[in-house]
What we know:
The structure holds two protein chains of two kinds. Chain A is an alpha+beta fold. Chain A has helices at residues 43-51, 93-103, 108-121, 137-150, 167-184, 195-201, 219-224, 229-234; strands at residues 4-12, 18-26, 32-36, 58-63, 66-67, 78-81, 155-159, 187-192, 204-209, 212-217, 241-248, 251-254, 257-260, 274-279, 284-287, 295-304, 308-315, 318-325, 335-340, 346-349. Chain A has eight helices and 20 strands. In chain A, strands 6-7-8-3-9-10 form a six-stranded mixed β-sheet, sandwiched between helices. In chain A, β17 (308-315) and β18 form a beta hairpin. The model of chain A has no long low-confidence stretch (mean pLDDT 88). Chain B is mostly helical. Chain B folds into two domains: 2-61, no CATH class; 71-274, MetI-like fold. The longest helix of chain B has 43 residues, at 2-44. Chain B is globular and about 70 Å long. Chain B starts with a helix and ends in an 11-residue tail after the last helix. Mean pLDDT of chain B is 85; it is low at 1-6. Chain A binds chain B through residues 51-53, 72-76, 78-80, 82-84, 86, 88-90, 99-100, 102-104, 132-133, 151, 157, and chain B through 174, 176-177, 179-186, 190, 194-195, 198-199, 283-285.
Amino acid sequence: MAEVEVSSLTKEFPGGARALDGLDLRTADGEFFALLGPSGCGKTTLLRTIAGLEAPTAGKVTIGGRDVTRLPPGDRDVAMVFQDYALYPHMTVTDNVAYPLKIKKVAKEARRGTAAEVASDLQLDTLLERRPGQLSGGQQQRVALARAIAVRPKVFLFDEPLSNLDARLRLEARTFLKRLQRELGVTTVYVTHDQSEALALADRMAVMEAGRIRQLGTPSEVFNRPANLFVAGFIGSTPMNLLPARVENGALRVAGGLLPLPAAAAGRVADGEEATLGARPEYVALGPPEDADGLSGTVALLENLGTGFLVSVECDGATVQAVVPEGGEPGVGDRVAVRVDRDRALVYRAGDGELVAAAPRAG
Amino acid sequence: MAAQGSGGAGGREVVAGLLSRLGLYLFVVVVSAYFALPMLWLLLTPFSTRPSLAATLPGVTLDNFRGVFENPYVLTSLRNSLLLALYTMALVVASATLAAYALSRVRLPGRDLLLYVLLLFSSVVSGTAAMVPLFLLMFQLDLVNTYLGVTLALTGGLLPAAIFILKDFMDGTPASYEESARVFGASPLQVLRDVVAPLVRPGLAVIAVWTLVNVWGNFLMPFILLRDPDVAPASVVMFSFYTEGGQANLRLLAAFSLLYSVPVVLLYVFVNRRYGFRFYGGIKR
C-alpha cells in the first residue's frame, strides 16, 4: 500500500552544512520504522524531507511507488505529529482534529463526525470542547495523534512525539502508540533520540550519525550485534563495555587478563591484531576471586537499578561494568573475577571500528 | 563632641531630604498641571455659559451642544471622519497582514534594511514636506476630493509602522503550527487565515485602533486633498469654527472638541479591556 523509499538523498543547508549524505532507505508497507541518532545526526531533516517541508539537494523520495520529491507536503498523503504537537491554541479539540478535513473540503457535519469518532477511539470524548491550553501533556499528545489519524494518511511521520512527556507518562504513551499503530497498520516513520523508545516501538530501525545510516536492522539485531563502535556505544540503557584488546594465541588480552576469543570472531582475526572487545554489562558475570582464567579486579562502585545492581570493577586501569541480580551484589572493595559471556561478546576492529562477524548483514 | 557633630549632620540630612522631596513634588505638580489644564478646559468649557480660554465654569448649560448640532456640517463631518478612518483601517490591516506575513516568513536578503528604510520614509510620505508633490500626484490621478485619494495617502504613511509592529507578532508564532497545516495541504493564504491571523489578533487589534485614532485625528491630509466642505472630516471642519468677527468660536469649538474626543477614548477603553495593548508578539498557550 505505502512503503517509503528514499534513494541517494542529500540535503545541504545554505552555508554548506550537510545534514543528509547520499542516504538510501526503504521501509516496508505497514512497518513501524524508527530513525535513531544523537542530536544533529540528520534524522529530523530526513523526516522533514519525507514530509516535503525540506527540499532535498539531490536524490529521490517515493511514497507508495509514487515519486513525491517535487510535490508539496499537502499532496504526499502523509500526516505528521510534531514534537510540540503544533495544536492550534485558538481552536477546540474538535476543530483541531477536524482542521485537516476542512482543508480537504469535507463538509462541516461530516468532518465533525469523523473528529468525534477518532477522538473517542483515543479516549478524548469528554474533552472535545476544550482548548489545547486546558489539556495535560498526555491529552495534547493524543489530540495531535487524533488529528493525524483523522486524515487517514498513507504514512505517519512522528518527530519525537513522546519527548515532551514526563518519564512515567512516556512509557504509557509508548505502549498506547505501538498498539495504535498495530491496529491501524499504517506505515510509520518515527524519529527519536531515545534508544529505548526505538527498541521498544520499532519493527526495524536505522541508527544515524552525521547524515549517514550506521546500522539498519530489527531492534534485536541492533541491540545484540551493533555493527560498529558508534552503534555499540549508542544503544543500551547501560552503556556497553568497550575495552581495548589484543589477539594473542586465539585469545584476547584485555585489561591485564586473558579472555577466550568470542565465538563470532573465532578464526577471523589474526594473532597480534589490535581490537576492541564489546560486552554488555548484562552479559558480564562476577565470580569469586580464585577463578584464575578470566579478568579480575576490585569493585569500585555499586549503582542500584531496582531489580539489580550495576557494578563497576577496576581491572588493571580499565573499568568493566556488570549487572548483577539483587542479592548477589559484592561489596565495594571486594576482589572479584570478571567473566564475559563468550557467545554474547563482540569484537570490533581497531582500524575502522567495524564488527568482526560471519557475514555483514544487510538490513 | 563627636556624637553632637554627627547628630547635627543627621539633622541636616533630614532637612535636605525633606527639601528635595518637596522640590520633587512641586515639580510633579507643575508638570501635571501643565498637561491636566487643557483636559480640564475640555471637560468644563463645553458646559460653560460663558466659554473662554480659561478653564472656568461660571454656570452650567447645554446650549453649546445645541449650537453644535445646529451647524449643518457637524454631523456629516463626524460621519466623514468615521468613514475615512474605517476605509483606511481596512486597507492598512489587510495590506499590513499580508506584507508582515510575507516578510516574516520569506528569507529575503536585506529584509530588515527594507523595513527600516520604509519606516524612515513613511513619515516623509504623509509629512508636510511631501504635500505639494502629493497633491500634484493625486491631481494627476484625478483623486483630489475623493476618499480613495486620502485613504491611499494615509495608508502609505501608516503602513510601514503597522507592518513593523505586526511582523514582530508573526515572528512569535511557532513554525510548527504552519508546518503542520502545510502537511495537511493548506495553502499559504489558508495558513494565514486559519492559523496565523487568529494567533496575532492582539497585534491586529493594536494596528486597527492605532490606524483609526491616527486617521481620526489627522488634519493636514484631508485638509489638502479634500476641497469640498461636504466631504471634509471633523478635524477639518473644526478649523472653520469662527464667529462673524473672525474670532475663534469657543462656544462651538469646545462642545465639538468634546464630541470629537469621546469616540477615541471609548475605543481605547474597549480595546484595552478586550485585548490589552501590547506591541510585541508571542503566544500564550
